[in-house]
Design a protein that fits this description.
The structure holds two protein chains of two kinds. Chain A is 64% helix and 4% strand. Chain A has helices spanning 16-42, 49-70, 80-93, 119-135, 149-165, 169-186, 190-210, 212-220, 233-245, 270-303, 307-331, 350-367; strands at residues 100-103, 106-112, 115-117. In chain A, a hairpin with a 2-residue loop joins β1 (100-103) and β2 (106-112). Chain B contains 21 helices and 35 strands. Chain B is of the alpha+beta class. Classes of the chains: A mainly alpha, B alpha+beta. Chains A and B meet through α6, α9, α10 and α11 of A and α1 and α2 of B.
Chain lengths: 370, 704
């Protein structure tokens, strides 16, 4: 059946709607990154810096997407352990001076000069590849805790710890969340999931209280005006972009909040710029496009020819969906502030590249849909 | 199949469940967006608008204060206030910013940091700094620091008319005219609103709104800057020479009631008002009340003439005292047996108390009091100055024969200098009591006249004939009476001296402290200026009005006549001898009689040494000397004259030279600028011709 037998399956066209929605979001991203960064970059004599960078990564991402959509997904299985080990090494390398790059007190990047790369972006994909591959193995009992969930949780714990050490709460949460969703999808009994969830509570509490700013941030979304200059600042600025957008928006490029009011207007808070410039109509259209993309992703997962394909697709789509929902939740002040990209739209270098590669894998799986 | 087996059915079910969850979450987020953008949109937009809009005050220019010829007495100079927007400065940078700014702004680092940490949109760090300071800060290029133009008040002539003008604090006039006319001078601040980015830079497409300020109104005063200057110069001089507790002077146009000059000393520099004691801020010639003494006798004289009870040629015998209701009241000549047989002209010229009591008894106590009140005493003159004194007269219950008698020669009543000036103005201008005023005109910044004050007659007190008679007698006081030291050659002048003992807080006289005064007017034919001077308790030299106030009057009036180009009188003047004979003073005590000997001869005196009686004199008795010659009188103990060294600090070299010249001291100067150091120190006693070493320095260096 599954795995190797896939090559006997009939190849179809890749999922057009998935491709189309992804390309649309990518294009919106390029336009919005330019709009959001232009004003701030004016002073740097190179107002096109972020635009150029986004296009470069998008081209690279498209190449990756093309490659993986033509690379039969079951062949990925054999690379799984290698990719996992490689991404573990890269995560560790972040802490080596000279290779790791420290920006604003966080070590999330490796690289030289302007060519930087976030190993945690690769780690997310690696964890999903590993989980999908492991849970689809025929020699394990998925529903048995010691054989199913536990080994994954151990590796996830190590990766999560490394990412939290950077620290990068957003990526950590997105990775852990999508792996947990994948475990859920794979059919691990609910009791086990509740147990894992319950045992994660002390860990979460520790993480929240170990950094004093986290709790403040965590609660400030409830009433950002309680501390408007400090913890509530980002949310307030985001709301000041969303509110004035109204139904139709102030017009593309006409936003004010990107002018040194919004933090990271071209990355984490780019959705606020979309809300301000394109209004409720534009912003909800973007959300609906995302929803279409998720729908196709789930459809691919449901119709994948084997368990591995199904889980791999489910992992990829839940990773993208989780990031999207968290980012927009943060920007709209619905959940606590967590630094996380908006997939495909935020300016985000390696994050964009790996999202595109993942979508390539998804496209490839869609070719073998039953 | 084992129950642990991977189940495709489970996977499908869970995928569908997850998808439904995601569908719900996406729907929730769309609803959230609709809530924020469509429902709360306007509210958030208003708040965001507030954040984008910066409002900077556009300060209205404070109105100028000008003299009667449009010369600037108080104006506004450009200056910048240094402001900060605390939320534009990163929390961790604030200490650094405070450290950088502290030395430039001359402020405590902690205080600056406190200001920078304020949760306000905008705070003042320091107000009204000169452009150079702003430039230095601009160079540092600190984000969140900006500048707001804010005119600073300045007074081009320093302390000139300071008690009248008052001063301005940071936001409002706090004293004097600046305070009184705050509403008129202040104007109305405007506003510049503009939209900025998060760093405070103006947005290219932002809307700009400018609400222009309405500049303050200009006050034009009746004061003549030059007359004011002449008066204050002479006052400063006497402050140094005689070291009195204070001097008050007023010059008024007796035909209109316009105040041409008014000053009290010691005063202050309104540019640095906080460096001076608060008592110096009040306009003493208007606020202070004291017993007037002999100058008040003019009221009794005018009343007696008006009532037909005065005959200049009628004889009168002064035995040195008179009895009023059983109380003996003395004349200042009592010790030598009185004035003897004189006429009523001599009663006035000799300032004879029994003679004035006689006049009062003829008029009647009540009628005299009515005249006192009709001349404006016991009530405010209505001058446009806040805090005017009222003075005290005897109440009807207190007012018996003795009180009426003392009132007739100016004791037991208290009056303000401005009341005396206006009363005498009425006596010499044909009988009209005028309301004095200082603000002649108020104009807006366009030059449109908003208020213009005209002379205002309060009431007519005496007839023109009476007025002429008072004038005639006042001229005699100058030509052959106690006022001769105020005589100016070629001009017909009327005047009257006064010496009043000071009343202490307990209501008793303070022994040895007098207020000396002189009031005079020029020219006799058509009085154009009336000048009043009062010197409070000189500490050095004689405490005689004729020796302190009369020469001061002469010097002031001479300069004023010269400045106003008032030609010498053409009508025949009373004969005043140009040469006088020096009387014999040796063996005389230093009493009023000795004073009278000197003052009636038109001689000035300078005491050398200390003692109760005159041991010797130069020139000798019988010598013929020019009018107003200074007689040196040796008082004993030592032959060495001792001179008190004045406080010279802050004076220019020219001023120091003049002052030391007057005192007979020599100057050894070093440096340039204003005096900062002197040796010997102020108030030490030195021999005549001693050398005083004075160090001068640039005024700025000394003040920092």
């Amino acid at each position: 059946m599954a795995g190797r037998s896939g090559r006997n399956l009939r190849r179809k066209e890749a999922d057009f709607i998935l491709l189309f929605t992804a390309m649309t979001l990518l294009a919106i991203g390029i336009v919005m990154v330019f709009s959001a960064s232009y004003y701030i970059l004016r002073e740097n004599k190179d107002p096109y810096y972020h635009l150029r960078r986004q296009v470069q990564w998008a081209v690279l991402g498209l190449a990756g997407m093309l490659f993986f959509s033509n690379y039969d997904y079951w062949k990925l299985k054999r690379w799984t352990n290698l990719v996992l080990l490689f991404s573990f090494l890269l995560l560790a390398a972040v802490f080596i001076p000279g290779i790791g790059v420290e920006i604003l007190g966080a070590r999330r990047w490796i690289g030289v000069g302007s060519l930087t790369f976030q190993p945690s972006d690769l780690a997310k994909v690696a964890m999903i590849m590993f989980t999908a591959a492991y849970l689809s193995r025929r020699d394990i009992q998925v529903r048995k805790f010691t054989e199913g969930a536990l080994p994954i949780l151990i590796i996830l714990g190590i990766f999560f710890a490394l990412i939290m050490k950077q620290p990068d709460l957003g990526t950590g949460v997105a990775m852990a969340g999508s792996v947990m969703l994948l475990i859920f999808v794979a059919g691990v009994p609910m009791q086990q999931l509740f147990l894992v969830g319950a045992s994660a509570v002390p860990l979460l509490l520790y993480l929240i209280y170990s950094e004093p700013y986290r709790l403040q941030r965590l609660m400030s979304f409830r009433d950002p005006w309680a501390d408007p200059l400090d913890t509530g600042y980002q949310i307030i600025q985001s709301l000041y972009a969303i509110g004035p957008g109204g139904l139709f928006g102030v017009g593309l490029g006409q936003g004010r909040q990107k002018m040194y009011y919004l933090p990271e207007p071209h990355s984490d808070f780019i959705f606020a710029v979309i809300c301000e410039e394109l209004g409720f109509i534009g912003a909800s259209t973007v959300l609906i496009i995302y929803f279409l993309l998720f729908w196709r992703g789930f459809k691919i997962a449901l119709s994948a020819p084997d368990a591995y394909g199904s889980l791999l697709a489910a992992g990829i789509v839940s990773m993208i969906a989780l990031q999207t929902l968290i980012n927009i939740g943060v920007v709209t002040g619905s959940i606590p502030v967590t630094g996380i990209n908006l997939p495909l739209i935020s300016s985000g270098g390696s994050s964009l590249l790996f999202t595109m590669c993942s979508l390539g894998i998804l496209l490839n799986i869609s070719k073998y849909a039953k | 199949m084992s129950r642990y087996k991977f189940s495709k059915i489970t996977v499908k079910k869970r995928l569908l469940l997850l998808f439904v969850c995601i569908f719900l979450l996406v729907t929730a987020l769309i609803l959230r967006l609709a809530w924020l953008q469509l429902v709360r949109g306007p509210e958030l937009q208003a708040k965001a608008w507030e954040q984008w809009t910066r409002s900077n005050p556009a300060r209205a220019q404070r109105g100028d204060i000008l003299d009667r010829h449009g010369r600037l007495l108080a104006g506004s100079a450009s200056s910048l206030s240094i402001m900060a927007r605390p939320n534009q400065i990163k929390e961790e940078d604030k200490a650094e910013v405070a450290k950088k700014l502290a030395p430039i702004l001359e402020m405590q680092e902690e205080r600056l940091l406190e200001l920078l940490q304020k949760k306000a949109d905008s705070v003042y760090l320091k107000r009204q700094m000169p452009e150079e300071v702003a430039q230095e800060i601009r160079k540092l290029n600190i984000r969140g620091i900006h500048f707001s133009p804010e005119p600073k008040r300045y007074y081009p002539h320093g302390s000139l008319a300071s008690q009248l003008l008052g001063f301005v604090g940071l936001d409002e006039g706090l004293a004097g005219l600046e305070n009184q006319y705050e509403t008129e001078l202040k104007g109305q601040d405007g506003r510049i609103e503009m939209q900025t980015d998060g760093r405070g830079h103006q947005l290219p497409q932002g809307i700009e709104k400018f609400i222009p300020p309405v500049d303050g109104y200009t006050l034009e005063l009746t004061i003549d800057q030059n007359i004011q200057f002449i008066m204050e110069r002479e006052m400063e001089r006497v402050m140094l020479e005689s070291q009195p507790k204070g001097i008050m002077a007023i010059a008024v146009d007796p035909q209109t009631g316009e105040v041409l000059g008014i000053a009290g000393k010691p005063d202050f520099d309104p540019n640095n008002y906080a460096d001076y004691p608060q008592v110096n801020w009040k306009l003493t010639p208007v606020t202070n009340t004291f017993e007037p003494g002999s100058t008040f006798k003019l009221v009794t004289l005018a009343a007696a003439i008006e009532e037909g009870k005065f005959n200049a040629a009628e004889g009168f015998y002064c035995s040195g005292y008179t009895k009023v209701a059983g109380t003996s009241i003395g004349c200042w000549t009592r010790g030598r047996g009185g004035h003897g047989a004189i006429d009523f002209t001599k009663v006035v010229l000799g300032s004879c108390n029994p003679g004035f009591i006689e006049l009062q008894e003829r008029i009647g106590a009540v009628t005299l009091m009515n005249y006192v009140k009709a001349f404006g005493f016991g009530q405010k003159t209505g001058i446009d100055i806040i805090g005017e004194g009222t003075g005290i007269l005897f109440s009807p219950q207190q007012y018996g024969p003795v009180e009426a008698a003392t009132t007739s020669f100016g004791q037991g009543v208290s009056v303000t200098p401005i009341q005396q000036v206006m009363a005498v103005s009425a006596m010499i201008n044909g009988g009209y009591l005028l309301k004095p005023y200082i603000v002649k005109e108020i104009r807006d910044s366009e030059g449109t006249v908003l208020t213009k004050k005209e002379p205002q007659v309060v009431r007519r007190v005496i007839s023109s004939a009476t007025s002429e008679e008072v004038k005639r007698i006042m001229e005699l006081v100058v030509t052959e009476g106690s006022g001769i030291n105020g005589y100016i050659e070629g001009y017909r002048i009327g005047g009257k001296t006064g010496t009043a003992q000071k009343v202490g807080p307990n209501g008793r006289y303070i022994s040895g402290e007098y207020i000396l005064s002189y009031i005079g007017f020029v020219p006799m034919e058509d009085p154009q200026i009336i000048l009043y001077i009062a010197v409070d308790a000189p500490q050095v030299g004689p405490q005689w009005g004729s020796q302190v106030c009369a020469p001061m009057f002469r010097r002031m009036m001479e300069s004023i006549l010269n400045y106003l180009n008032i030609p010498p009188s053409t009508t025949p003047e009373e004969a005043v001898p140009s040469m006088v004979e020096v009387p014999n003073l040796i063996g005389l005590p230093l009493d009023d009689h000795t004073n009278a000997l000197l003052e009636n001869n038109g001689l000035l005196v300078r005491f050398i040494g200390e003692g109760p009686t005159v041991l010797n004199q130069t020139p000798k008795a019988g010598a013929k000397v020019p009018l107003h010659t200074q007689v040196l009188v040796y008082l004993g103990g030592t032959d060495e004259e001792e001179i008190t060294v004045p406080d010279l600090s802050g004076k220019t070299m020219r001023e120091v030279g003049e002052v030391l010249g007057w005192l007979g001291l020599r100057l050894n100067s070093s440096g340039s600028g204003v005096a900062v150091q002197q040796e010997p120190k102020a108030y030490t006693k030195v021999a005549p011709n001693s050398v005083i070493s004075v160090e001068f320095a640039a005024p700025d260096a000394e003040q920092r």
